[in-house]
Every structure is written in structure tokens, then in C-alpha cells.
Amino acid sequence: MSKQQTSFDKAGIAAWFAAYSDDMHRDPYPFYRYLLEQEPVLHLEERWTWIVSRFEDVSRVLKDPLFVREYRNAVPENQEMPSVSAEWKPVDGMLNNWMLFRDAPAHTRLRGLVSHAFTPRTMERLKPVIQEIADFLADGMAEQSRPDLIASYAFTLPVIVIADLLGVPSEDRALFRNWSHAFAKVLEGVDQSPQYVEQTIRATNEISAYFKDLIAQRRTSPREDMISDLLAAQEEQSDVLTEQEMIATCVLLLVAGHETTVNLIGNAVRLLLSEPGELARLSERPKLAATAVEEALRYESPVQMTGRIASADVEIGGRTIRRGQFVQVMLGAANRDAAQFAEPDRFDIARQPNRHLAFATGAHFCLGAPLARLEGEIALRTLASRFPNMRLTDDKPDWQPNILFRGHRTLPVLL
Ligand code: HEM
């Protein structure tokens, strides 16, 4: 056992989940290696949580219907539900309408309504649109002496795409940055300060009012966008989606569009630039963009973990997880499991096969995966062909202080 591994004790792990640690933001992998090798199914009693990290166990939890999303589906009917303060109710109400936090049948209904927006046909239609945005942003980078790849490119591209898909007018896009960041903090679930509570409630009220208004506009004058499509579906079948569910679905898609693909593009570029010649290799063989995207998803997973609740006593890896207990599955660790991936700590842009869990698996498999993959491929191909000599500045990597979403706050480059 290495020295580094012995430094993790249960108190240290609990502290990691309870508070930020700069070390973990910079490099969570020694900790993941410890989990994989020493504590693959770990019970953190004081946090009523299990941490599951091996590829096989993570897949099992995500696929097994005994692990659910809604607490009320996990515990006996007569069990009291955790109470929510009056001021937090709007936030709770919004999250309860996200398909991500629902089980069937509500999950199936909510997911079914927007799934057509991510079909291969829609992706074909979006290709030239995304390419145009990537070219436009690359032009903007070319005019700067030391562009920040995140602000100028990786963040902006997915935000424009998702806002267009939903039908958010371009002049309103800037509003969404702070709202989306507020929800990213809720999902991380670490900060509980009064300031955070106040910001989240404000963001929820503002974004709900915004979408209520936009939905009303589209009801009277429909356009070619997702909100108009959802309204048309609602007219055909009146119980299909309530207004609150429609607002929540728009917010979920916007948050997903803001907080994830930016990290895929940013992480992939930094990894490519860390190895001399890798970007040039991609510009010579653009077909490698598809496997490079998969490898970046595996190696630095933009979403590091997710959670479920056991609805019965279940045995995983020789330990018994009891009904009603929470399970944190570590996607970022599972994607570095040597039992699944040869040389898991080597970044190899041609790796195949590469059946990673960056988009999870099972009923909640990322709905936006085809869009994220397409955006990632076009983004990398465009950068490789426009700036084959791009390099990192000497600055240290500037990781976001977030244990759920792994990505860079800034990434200055030289072209
Ligand atoms: C690289 C980018 C992305 C990554 C790594 C990612 C990752 C994930 C993961 C891990 C989940 C499953 C969570 C769980 O099972 O608990 C998920 C679900 C989801 N993602 Fe993504 N995502 C990405 C991009 C997107 C985009 C661009 C969209 C849409 C605009 C999107 C929409 C969704 C939705 C709606 C769900 C919920 C699906 C369900 O509950 O059935 N994602 N994503």
C-alpha cells in the first residue's frame, strides 16, 4: 500500500464529502485508487451513505431497479418523509419535476416527451449549425493573443446550442449563466450556507418566471423550437405535461447544457495539449476526434458521481446495503478501474473498446449524450484544424471547486 493510500481514513473521506478540498479538486485519483483497491463498497455511517466505486458494482447499482431515485419509493408507505422548509419549497418542487430525480412511471413520461430532440435525425440536422458556431468562436479566438479556451469556446458553444434548441432568444442567453451555476451547486450538495440558500431560491424564482413568460409567448406564437413542440404535444393530449413540469424540464436541459459539455471540451483540450504532438495527430487524422472524445469522457469524467437509494436490502460486493440507505456511485473512479480498462491511468485517444460510464447507464442514461458527443467531436476537429500548434501557457490547471462537475474554470492557451 502506498503512503498516499494510507492517508485516507473514514474521517478524511467524510470530510471530503462535507467540505471542499483543493487537493481533491486538483487530483481526486489517488483517493479513487484507494477506494477501488481498498474500500470498493464503503459505508460512511455518519453520512448515512455508501460509496461504490468499481465499474461492475457501479453498473449494477445504476441498472438494478431496486435502486431508485425517489425516497418515497424506497421506504415503507407509512414512513415519514424528510420535511422541507417553506422557503425551500420552490427549489424542492423544481427538482422533483426533473426526470433525473424521478422513477417510473413519471420518469418514463417526462423522458419520452423530450427524447425526440436527441434522435440521430435531429443530430444530422444540428451538425451544420454546430459547425457554424464552432467556426465563429474559433475566429474570435484567433483575434486574441492569449485566449481563455473556456470563456471563448468550450463554454459558449454548448450554451448557444442548447439555448437555440429550446428557443431562448440570443439576447437573453447571458441571464442563464448565474442561474445555471446556482443549480450546479444544488446538485453538488456541499454548500449549505444561508447565502447559498438565498441565491438558490432567488435563481429558482427568476428562472421559473422567465420560462413561464417564454411559454406564454410560444403558446400564442409558436416557432420551430422545443418549447413550441412541447406545447403542441400538450394540446394533443392534455395530461401530458403540467406547466411546472415543462418549466422544470427546460431548466434541467439548460443546466445540463451549461455545466457538462463545457467540461468535456475543456478537459479534452488540456489532455491533448499535455502530450506534445497529440493535437497535430488529430489534425492529420480528424477521424480520431470520436475516440478522443470518448477517452476524455472516461479519463476526466465531466460528471464524477451520482446517487441512488436502496428500496430493499441488496448485497453489493459482499456488503449489505439496507433499504432506505443512500448510495453514491463514483463514475470518475469506475472509469479508472483496471478490471475494466487496460492501463486505466493512460490517456489514449485511439482507445477501443471504451465502454465507460461517463453518461451513466440504465434508465437514466444521459439523454443528451448524442448531442454532447457531436458537440465534442466538432469542437475538437475544428480546433485541431484551425490551431494545430496550440499550446498551454505555463499556468497551473485551474480546476473548478466542485466535486461533482470536473472541469476547468479557465484554460488560457497560446495559438
Ligand atoms: C459531456 C456532457 C455530459 C455528461 C458527461 C452527462 C452526464 C450525465 C449523467 C452521468 C447522467 C445520469 C445521471 C444519473 O443517472 O443519475 C445524465 C443524465 C441526463 N443528461 Fe447528461 N451529460 C452530458 C450532457 C448533456 C446534455 C448536453 C444534455 C441536454 C442538453 C443532457 C441531458 C441530460 C438529461 C435530461 C439527463 C436525465 C436523464 C434521465 O433522468 O433519464 N446531458 N447526464
From TrEMBL:
Keywords: Heme, Iron, Metal-binding, Monooxygenase, Oxidoreductase
One annotated GO molecular function: monooxygenase activity
Lineage: superkingdom: Bacteria
Family to which this protein belongs: Belongs to the cytochrome P450 family.
Protein name: Cytochrome P450
